[in-house]
Amino acid sequence: MNEELVTGYVTKYALTKGVLMMKGVVSESGALHKPRGWLYIGRGDWFTNKEDALRKAEKMRVAKIASLKKQISRLQGLEIKVIEAPEGVA
To answer: Which end of the chain has fewer CB atoms < 10 Å from its terminal CB, N or C?
Structure first.
């Protein structure tokens, strides 16, 4: 494993914290991690190029918005009913 520090742009937490810039070591598997640290970012969740990281974060944002719109649509169409609990439940 190469112990050379690289600058990585982490997208794993882009929708909650933003893109994180960190110095770390790249493992044989392609993960980025802090030397002697607990933070371990898998391949695909970090980039060496800021523009690539921002592109990934934007794709994540658009996908999350689409997912939430779908969820809202389902909830708007939901009809709440009172049903009798099956035998043995409650």
So the answer is: C
